[in-house]
UniProtKB/TrEMBL annotation:
Similarity annotation: Belongs to the FPG family.
GO annotation terms (biological process): base-excision repair; response to oxidative stress
Protein's gene: mutM
Protein name as catalogued: Formamidopyrimidine-DNA glycosylase
Alphabetical keyword list: DNA damage, DNA repair, DNA-binding, Glycosidase, Hydrolase, Lyase, Metal-binding, Multifunctional enzyme, Zinc, Zinc-finger
Amino acid sequence: MPELPEVEVVRAGLAPAVTGARVEGVEVLDARSIARHDGDAAAFEAALVGRTLGAPERRGKFLWVPIRDGADALLAHLGMSGQVLVREPGAAPDRHTRIRLLLDQPVHGPIEIRFADQRIFGGLAVRPLVAADGGRAVPDQAAHISLDPIDADFDASVVARRLRRRRQGVKAALLDQTLVSGIGNIYADEALWRSRLHYATPGERLTQARALALLADVRDVLEQALAEGGTSFDAQYVNVNGQAGYFEHSLHAYGRGGQPCHRCGATMVREPWANRSSTRCPRCQRRPRGIAV
DNA sequence: ACGAGCACCTGACTGC
DNA sequence: TGCAGTCAGGTGCTCG
C-alpha cells in the first residue's frame, strides 16, 4: 500500500488495535521482512515481547508504533506490496504473511497483527527514536524524510522555495522524499495533471505562486484519496480489515493512457519515465520549451 | 546536483 | 501447455 493515503488508512485502522496493547508473542515467518532490523529474528522478538505499544504515527510513507517506557519504536514500511492486517487470533490465513504479532489489547482482548508482503520490499524493524525537525521523535531510518503535505507543521512556502531552487523536473522533485514526503507515482501524476504541468518542467521555472498551487494540488489529491480510503487496483492495497479503497474511480491521469483527458478530451499518453512510467495529457500538460524529454 | 541504472522480490499477464 | 519477457503504487545505492 505504498503512498501516503494508503499508509494513513493503515495507521488509522491500526490505532485502536495496538494502542496500549501488550505484545504477547512474535513470529517471524520470513527473515527477509526484518532485513532493516539490526539483529536476527530472535533479537527482533526479544525487543518486542512483554512490551506495551503506544499510538501509531506516520510521516510520509513511514509508519511506526512507539514502544512505551523506552526510546524505540516498531517501524513499518510497506514497500510496494506490504499490508498490515488486524485479525482474530487463529483467523483464516492471509496470503504472503511474513510476520505475526500476538497482542493483548486492554479493551478488545487478544488480537493478531499480520504483516503480509508479496514482494518483500517492505518490512518491520525495531529502531531507536531520534529527534527530527520540529523536535519530534522519529525512527532513525525515517529521520531523513521530510514532513508530508498533510502534516500540521508542513510549510508550503518553504517547500515551494526549495522546489524552485531545483533544476530537476518537478515529478522527480515531488518523488524525492527528502523534499516532501508521501508522494509516489500515482499521486505525482494526479497532482501534475491538476496543475497542468509536464513532468519534466524544471523546478526553477516555477514562480512561487505556481509552486504553491502545485503543492496545494498535491495536498488536495492526497486528502481526497484518504477520504475515499485510498487507491486499490487489486487485492494488494487494502486497509487493516482487508477492504479496498475507492479512489481508483477518481483518477484523472494514472493508468489512463489511451483514454480521453477528463478536462479537454485529448488522448492521454503513457510514457517511459525513470525506469517506470508517467501518464499525462499531451494538450493540458505540454512539454516546456527548450526541455528535451 | 542530478539523472541513469541497478538491486532488492513475487506474481499476474502477454505473446509466441 | 509452457516459457520468456514485461510490468507493478518504493527505496537506496553506485556511477558518471
